Amino acid sequence: MKKRNTLSAKKRRKLVSTCIAVVVALFFAAIFITPIVLTITNSFMAQSEINANYGAVFAKNEKGGKVFISEIVNLKFIPDMVSFTQYLTVLFKSPDYLFKFWNSVILVVPIVVFQLAVAMFASYGFMRAKGKLKEIVFFLYVILMLMPYQVTLVPNYLVSTWLNIVDTRWAIWLPGVASPFAVYLLTKFMRRIPSSYIEAAQIDGAGEWQIFRRICAPLCKGCLCSVAILVFIDYWNMVEQPLILLSDAELHPLSVFLSQINSGETGLAFAVATIYMIPSILIFLYGEDYLVEGIMYQGGIKG
Amino acid sequence: MKKDRKKNIFKKRAGRQRIGALAFLSPSLIGVFLFFVLPFFVVIYYSMIDNPITANFVWFENFGKVFNNGAFKIASGNTLKFSVIAMPLSVILGLLLAILLDRDMPLRSQFRTCFLTPMMVPVASVVLIFQVMFHYNGALNRFMANFGVDKIDWLKSEYAQVVIIILFLWKNLGYNMILFLSALESIPRDILEVATLDSANPFQIFFKIKIRYLTSTILFVTIFSLINSFKVFREIYLLTGDYPNELYMLQHFMNNTFKSLDYQKLSSAAIIMSLVMVVIIGALFMIENHFGKDVEE
After folding, report:
1. ipTM of the complex
2. Chain A residue with the nearest C-alpha to that of B274
3. Domains annotated on chain A, with CATH
4. What phi, psi does B117 have (nearest 5°)?
């Protein structure tokens, strides 16, 4: 009798602690996703509603506007009237935003594809190479990977002036493709491939290319997805490189342009911000597990 | 004779493997050499001459100038201040979130998704909402007014530091949480069970057992957060622009020096920053070598 009592007390305590944990987690989860949800819901507000709600924040540069501007901000989750006008404007009437979106795509996609391709080869090379020199070179890659942009941008800028590619997309593409980040992660993964696989292939007479093509590349598929996601987020979010390497604002990606949208178009800005989020959110929903795995490779816990 | 031939084959194979490895490495090596290594030597050269035209060697004079530069002093002070506050917060809060989720609970994977989402969302997309919240006439001040707190100009006073820390944590906590969570999950279950049977309470289990398995991860996350905190320019630029009063960071210094194209100042500052980074990264490696192994094996 007494034993049953203590057991249920233990169970009850566990239940209480789980409840508390859920409540705390709910609180944090709400904080984490509120900015995202607000951006999305506010993109369905008409400009007049945005002005009425947020005029006090954004209207300071607007001179002589006739819109009614309220003194205080009214943070709203759900618009009074759902309107798609912002999206219609962005998508059909003002090609500027779509053009900048296209800039982002054209800057990011080639970097992701080619950085991964170069990194696949390089990581195989790092796995196969032997000796002290290899270790030193790999360490150099790690240092480069961890450097903040403000350090690596100085050399990048110098080379771009030599090659005469400043203010062209090549100035972003080429350093992006050469970036050591993907090499680092893929090498860490490749090193975990059991050497017996490779030895077996060698005994069967496979050359380096065949080992790479038939054994290592197929094993890397999952890891490749993880790295692709991490590289994509980094470049989709880029601000520093275009600011310095592309003085021509026409070529700027949406990530830079969004901060320069003028105050009269804040309604549009919310819609553009939402559109800009869509690719990364889709990738996230599809590849969350890959992302988590990628983080773990990076953290050195796996590999 | 036969043995000799065998040796030869091995040698040949090793040689072929080396050439193969080099061939695979070459595209990346060429890229890294051309875009990072070679120009970096030029950066070192630029940092030691007086100007690119006469090119007299002045050795370390430029570095002295940078150190005495007012903007550089302010910028490095602000960066240091930010890092010192942001780094421990992101480690501790990340660990707390991981502990929170390290149990059987409903909606666990949904919570993980929520905490990770900010990492995926481009900062540029949520800057608008942050402005709405933290503006002088913004939502937060309005909310605080209910409690009789005076309006604070969050983005244009010393409180701007707070806003950026919040944005930094919002963006990076999920990442740290994932690392801690996987470290917690890798702790052998039987040890924890034995401890529970010996009626250890959760605090004892955490501080006496789990923390030992977490040491290497904590150190890694600490240094990684430090490195990430140097990259916070993006958030500050998007939120406040080129010349924020209270948030003038090293990266602003670099960006604005880029505009004036003062190669000497730029190169010296880049070298100072990279030396600091090399020291930090070296520490990271020593830590990994020192602690990383005795937990895994």
Report:
1. 0.85
2. A151
3. 2-89 (no CATH), 92-298 (1.10.3720.10)
4. -55, -45
